[in-house]
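hey m, so remember when u said the tokens were messed up on ur end? i reran from scratch. heres the input so u can diff it against urs
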Amino acid sequence: MNVKAILEDKGRAVETIGPDETLTVAINRLAEHRIGALVVTNGDRKVVGIVSERDIVCAMNKHGAAALEQSVRHAMTAKVNLCTENHTINQVMEIMTTGRFRHLPVVKNGQLDGIVSIGDVVKKRIEEVEREAEEIIHYIWAG
């Protein structure tokens, strides 16, 4: 099972934000869409960062309420781990676990093509395990 299977189920839409937007705008977008991260692009679908709830909390811890008027570029994670639709679910789980983050942008030809969350990965993995269990039961009873 790979990232392509996840994107085929959930779609490839990704909420993005520009690096010059304020953290207040980012917070409003996160709340509006009920998501935990926004991919930062310059409008060209090229990933330049990611800003998560954790990034915003850290900025507010450091700068207080003044952080809300800072640009996303000051709080975002600029060194973003990326994957492609060919990455396996196990590879993505390892990347997320090692990096201790919950969102992984998907790129194709250097441009943003989707995003997977830990929730997406766990859901797909559970479906895969359930399907395998059904196949084993069917094999045992059919044999």
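this time it looks ok to me. DSSP finds five helices and five strands in the chain. if urs says something different then somethings off w ur setup not the seq
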